[in-house]
Amino acid sequence: MNAPKRLRVKLFVDNPEAVAVEKIVPVFQRWIQRGAIKNELLIDVADYKHVHHGPGILLIAHEGDYAYQFNDGRVGLSYTLKQHDSATLEEALSTALQRVLFAAQLVHKESQLKGLRIALDTIQVSLLDRLQYPHDGETIEQAQAAITALLASTADEVEVTAVEADSREPISFTVKSAKSLEHLIAPAEVNAG
Amino acid sequence: MTTSWKDTLQNKMASDLERQIDIFEGQIELRKQGKLDEKVFAETRLRRGVYGQRYDNGQRHDGLQTRTLEFPSGDLVKGPDTHWDAPGMMRIKIPYGGMSVDQMNVMADLAEEYADDILHITTRQDIQLHYVHIDDTPDLMRRLAQVGITTQEACGNSVRNITACHLTGVCHDEKFDVSPYADALTDFLLGHDDIQDFGRKMKIAFSGCEEHACGLVKMHDIGFLARTVEKDGQEVRGFTVFVGGGLGTVPHQAKVLADFVAEDRILPLAQAISRVFARHGEKQNRNRARLKFLVSKLGLEEFRRLVMEELETLPADDRHAGYIDELDDYGEEPVRQGLTLNGEAVDDGFYDWYRTNVYKQRQSGYSTITVKLPLGDLTSWQMRQLADIAEEFVGDYVRTTVEQNIVLRWVSDKDLPEVYKRLNAVGLGSAGANTIVDITTCPGTDTCKLGIASSRGLTGELSKRLEAKRADLPKAVEELKIKVSGCFNSCGQHHVADIGFFGNSRRSGNHKVPHFQVVLGGQWQNNGGSYGLAIGAVPAKVVPDVLDTITRTYVDERLDDENFQAWVERKGKRAIKDMLTPFMTLPTFMEAPQMFTDWGDSRVYSISDIGIGECAGEVVSLFSIEISKAESAHFDALIALDEGDYELADQKAYQAMLLAARALVRTQFLDVGDDPDNIVNEFKTRFYDTQLFYDPFAKGKFGRFLLNRHENPPQQADKDFAHSTIDEAQLFIEATHSAEARVNGVITS
Fold first, then answer.
1. Do A62 and B85 touch (CB under 8 A)?
2. Which of A35, B283, B403, B598 is paired with B106 by a 20 to 30 Å CA distance?
3. CATH entry 3.40.50.10490 includes domain B622-743
């Protein structure tokens, strides 16, 4: 399948109570100062913590946005792939997964966020492209197959489930893996192209 | 199969909007190819609501140093010093704040697919999306146009979104509902020839009544205040018309241009004012280019004389009063019967919310409820949920407000508990609307290129602290209004708040410290009836303490029912300044490093990376704007030729020549109109026959390209013919540039 215009992957935080959301802003600002993520142009930090179930704290980059976010009422670390040359859904998803897993590694190394645990066995994938990925059964089925094909070296290692939602919402899938996702996709600071 | 929004939505929007968007897409391509001047492109994109955003100059101070942001687009810019790949802002015009359920759903999708999942309500009832890439804007516009929304003239030197009181039509005190008038004026002025040559923007508002804040007509370039008079025993509708108001650095109260203008004369009056503004307004010095300066310079009497003179010479236009016949059809039909709230079970917090967020309409059994939005923000998901609530309980009667909230009109009183429950479930049921906790703020340093201090950061902090003690606030304090701007340009409307703040900075040693100027005693009521007094600047980090001091002293000292404005006036500027002086002391960086950061930002404060604002638009001549349309048409012709559509290619090339000729004619004769015969006739008379169009070497050759093509349209255009017309159009456009330069004395080299 063609790569969607935008694609979001989200890892979930096991224990959001461990760290106040205010602590994320200086961490993201430091990532910009240090150039902590290579091959991406980190631009700015946007603070939406005041918005209910919102994007939380965003690290805006040219290629994509990192977020410590609250969508669906679940705290997580997400990456939204925006500018990319990926031809296929599989390529785009692979890039986004590598990036979010790399960001998770950075979070786990942050002394200011000590104790915060990001689960690496579950991920939510959202396809933000209503033109190519309308919310209908056929598209969901095809996308599910493509995602499964990318992630499942054996069929019983990952389970890809479509998230039931209002048809106006973007198509989303929950991916559960028996192993850490890092075993399937190596975290990396990859180029989008 | 890959498809596009352009193909998918073809013929599913108004044809003029479709054409405008196609033109803009062509201009994007021209700019990328270096064939469209950056200033001209900047003004054309601004006029389509495509705005710049902070750091698009490629500079950002990261707290340690100012670093260059290496955008992949390299040297390609979308305006002076504005990198192509830098995220930008898209402003969506919502005339008088009115939104339908379909429109809400589409805007939710757009925020998710092109922005950061946030819809931001502005103080002009617009909706803004941030972090948008310019390449996405044509599709974004198409999807909006599909549901009847345009971004045309949302920015730039044009007529901005026309605002109106969100309660008009349901208010107890108004003379009549001003919505259809705001609607008619919006339609009439959109893209109108007479608003294309302004030196700055123009803001227009409608109010239904005088005493409330309503449409804030007294702070607008043009304000229409509903009024009725009796004539021959009949009530006649019309408006008191104000001109020359405005906030900005130098606020002006509007003056009464006409005490009563009948309802069928307001469109031509607005047109005449626009013409006077275009003709006599400042064009070079953007700081003096708003209408308020022209009214001030000429004096109200002379300005009025010029407007009346212009009125008499306006070409006849059926649209001037065409909408009057449809006024009787205008009205809102609630989807639910208006029933009294009578013992229904309610959730916790309902009565608190009811007290602050519910307005009883003049129509029995109905209320308008305010959905209070923190910092004017809501997510795509929330917008969809709100659309669902609207669809079920009120239909399409949803409006944005100038205080950055959303209202649902026509809620049956009986449904209020259920609506509250539903709003609460999606995080939109906060109480305290229209009170001190409901603070208005501009984007400030978060995203605005002009921001000096973090207005949103400060607002977030003040809101949090005030919310925590809201239940214990004295009524006199609860009723106060706070408005915050990130700089002196007043987008947060700090002049018309009881307590206003605007960002600035001061130096301490080698560091800058973010500050806010304290402005006290402005009046929100009476349509923004008076402006506050600037008292002094305090460091950003002490503003919450300053606010506590002001409100506590006010409560302690106020006499009986003395309001805040009266207390400020009685206490006097000197005494208030004395009260704030202890807060103005600046520590050194070593003493208090936290003072050297702004609210919501961990970086050491700096404004070394500040950009140049785009509010003013680019000062580009009318000719430059118009000739760019010709160049776009020529580009379209090339595309059509490539695609083998020779008829269309020929048509577009011919249209390019017509547009170029029109651009030239309009430097002398504004009212040439769109009729090809008129354009060619005027071109021939004014420029061809007089030889003004003549090239020193080719003489009249290029001019004849248009005359010949106009006189002799092809029976059928084949590839060679189309190619030839395109070549001729290119030469004609070049000749038009040269002629304009010669005629207007511009030296080119």
1. yes
2. B403
3. no
